[in-house]
Amino acid sequence: MSVILAIESSCDETSVAICNNGKITANVIANQTIHENYGGVIPELASRVHQQNIVPVIQQALIDAKVNKKELDAVAFTRGPGLLGSLLVGVSFAKSFALALDLPLISVNHMHAHILAHFIDDPKPSFPFLCLTVSGGHTQIVLVKDYFDMEIVGETLDDAAGEAFDKTAKILNLPYPGGPLIDKHAKLGNPLAFKFGEPQIKDLNYSFSGLKTSILYFIRKQELENPDFIIENLDDICASVQHSIVYILLNKVKKAAKQYGIKDIAIAGGVSANSGLRAELTRLAEELDWKVYIPAFEYCTDNAAMIAIAGYHKYLKKDFVGQDVSPMSRMEF
């Protein structure tokens, strides 16, 4: 038996989860709305709000799981990648908490955890499988051979898919966070209304900087002819942008699946909550006879449940770290 408390603080969500012998019994997330006023995450503000949130979030997680802190067997935490100030709050608290209770520490790679979120609920993928991890900071195709034996076989050479959504939202004057709003408007629009430049990248890598530029120039040109173009065509613009991004993402996944002869396909990361991506992946599963694994919405964005399940599998291996561990804004995969 093992009871693990996990802390996630890589960006602007303060989250704590409890994993009891491989089962998530609590997953508390405190979001930071302050960044909406600035159109993006302000690192210094994020770290300050983490300091305010972390104690009450831990207390609530223990209450939800009906666990006393003396019953804990280990403390898992996100070491990176992420915002250094935000990580520092979570890592420092985890070290102090573990030291006070004489508990072992478990360091978790944030991107590994996104993938291992698929092992929280059934159905669980079988090894090996391919996982498309898509977020505001990362876009990767990962060959997952075991819980901690993973290989990046394709990744973005510049911007992430999530950033393409967010930057497009800014161009369209949508409030932050813009990605979910593009998804909302896309449901009402025609995905084939407008066409944008498609990146010509060899192998399994991605590029989204050119797509962002194509969208920007298109909007500017249209607004010169019609200043109300965005307002009059918002749904169709969002649907067309979303269609372009999803096509680019899944076209590479199709190539990877064929190249490696794998039919078990998963998605992870914040952008995996996008309804267009989920729908198209489900359609491809039927067309190509794939087994597709799509996480529950609560496990798509940053959350401590994914840190807890990763921590649980590390606990089984007795893979602990010492009190000299430090946060890392960038980590080797």
Q: What's the tally of helices?
A: 9
CATH class of the largest domain: Alpha Beta
Beta strand count: 10
Query: What characteristic shape results from the CA principal axes?
Result: globular
Which CATH architecture of the largest domain is right? Answer: 2-Layer Sandwich
Order of helices and strands: EEEHEHEHEEEHHHHEHEH
Structural class, by secondary structure, is: alpha/beta
Largest sheet: 5 strands, mixed
* Uncertain residue ranges: none
| Order of adjacent strands in the largest pleated sheet | 3-2-1-4-5
Distance N terminus to C terminus?
29 Å
Fraction in helix:
40-55%
According to CATH, the homologous superfamily of the largest domain is ATPase, nucleotide binding domain
What is the strand content?
A: 15-25%
Compute the number of structural domains.
2
Rg is 20 Å
CATH fold node name of the largest domain? Nucleotidyltransferase, domain 5
* Mean pLDDT score: 94
